[in-house]
Amino acid sequence: MTLLGRTHKRWRLCAYMTTISALVLAIFVLFRHDNSRQHVLSRRPDMAELLADYAEAHEDVKRDEVNALCRFHGFRPYGQPRKVYDLIAFTSSLDWLEIRLNTLAAHVDYFVIAESSITNVSAGGLALSQNWDRFRAFHDKIMYRAVNISPARVDATDYMNNLQHAVFTEVLASSVSTDKKPNPGDVLIVGDMHELPRPGTISILRHCDPPSRTTLASQSFLYSFALHRTGFSWLYPQATTFGSSLRNTILPSDLRRGLLPWSLRVRDIVYLPYHAARRWWDRAVILDAAWNCSLCHGTIEEVQREMQDLGALDAAGNVSVIVDHVHASQDLSAGEDRLLRLVEQKWMDLPEYVWEQWKEHGRFGYLVDRSGPGAGFGDIPETFVGT
User: Name one GO biological process term (predicted).
Assistant: First the structure.
């Protein structure tokens, strides 16, 4: 073999080994990144104290404490505090709105709320607008608008997607010329009414730099905080950041469904593989970051409405079936196979506001104890017995 041939062979071998090494390194990096997505909101006393201290927006920020807080939870510090917006697609539960406002008002900067007079099953009226004075203590933090959402004819998901879309495109968009406008990098939280972030989670979102698609995984409960769904996390709500403009920000409905931003799908078709890769890369999960309480309502009417939204019309129409299932700690939702565990009151994991209102004023009892004859529902007699 000539010298030129031997040199060429060595170069081919070198190129082959370099390619193999690069592939192995790429697989290692991708595997490591994929296994580093999960973070857990700490309940360690020192971290819990820092989470509480920095959940509220204030100027007295000690960078060493914030840096330690972020590093402990696996994130880089953001560099400077930023605003947090809680985007709410309001349906009908005034109690849950009260709980949300009182739990998060000291921690988020603004609540962005859209409400439609027509639900996906009926014309229900503007419940929040009609009870506006009930929340007057929070008016300075609320951006609210009644919107026109046509009822979805296919399923409830379409209706909620449209309502969440309106929160962003009609309510938040109306603030861009005011002092309440979001700036690039500000945090947007997207969730249903019954998906409530923990105050400590706000500290992470405000001061640290999680990816643009961050899931705030919830501890999940059914009917009340006394019935815990074990063995899995509810992978909602989500958080993202405001982009350079409204157009360059992930829409709430796209964020929730894991879709690419609509502007990219329309304008940048050539770059879809790149954006799809970024979507995969720029995501994380914070475990134990929120509460999710399904069918946790104080009236049969509200449970029936939610069951209708889920398509379980047979169960929704029968009061006896609902009460019997609640008493028996059985799931009304067809096809569910979850482990349900009753929790003693002293071990309950619930928002502090709910516990205080129940202990001091006897309110929200249906979120703590469903054992009474009426299963805690306020629109049926306490002497009701399911038949």
Answer: N-acetylglucosamine metabolic process
CA atoms of 237 and 257, how far apart (whole Å): 11
Could you tell me if 14 and 260 are in contact, meaning their C-beta atoms sit under 8 angstroms apart?
no
Ranking 13-27, 80-94, 294-308, 347-361 by mean pLDDT, the lowest is 13-27
Amino acid code (one letter) for 172: L
Q: pLDDT by residue (tens digit) across 279-290?
A: 766 889 999 999
Residues 67-102 have pLDDT tens digits of 888 988 999 999 887 999 999 999 878 999 999 999
- 204: its two tokens: 């992470």
CB contact at 8 A, 160 and 89:
yes
Alpha helix ranges (H) inside the chain: 3-34, 45-53, 63-72, 94-104, 127-130, 156-166, 199-207, 252-257, 262-267, 272-281, 300-310, 313-316, 319-327, 352-361
Domain count, the chain: 2
The pTM of this model reads 0.86
**At which residue do the structure tokens 């790429």 appear?**
26
The region, left, alpha or beta by phi > 0 then psi within -120 to 50, assigned to residue 258 is left
Residue of 111, 91, 97, 110 whose CA lies nearest to 163 = 91
Pairing relationship of beta strands 213-222 and 283-294 according to DSSP bridges = parallel
- Asked, for residue 374, whether it belongs to a domain, the answer is no
State which of 274, 294, 314 marks the end of a domain.
294
Non-local (6+) Cβ contacts of 21 within 8 A are none
Residues 6+ apart with CB under 8 A from 298: 95, 364, 366, 376, 377, 378
Do residues 344 and 355 touch, judged by C-beta distance below 8 A? Answer: no
Residue 186 in any domain: the answer is yes
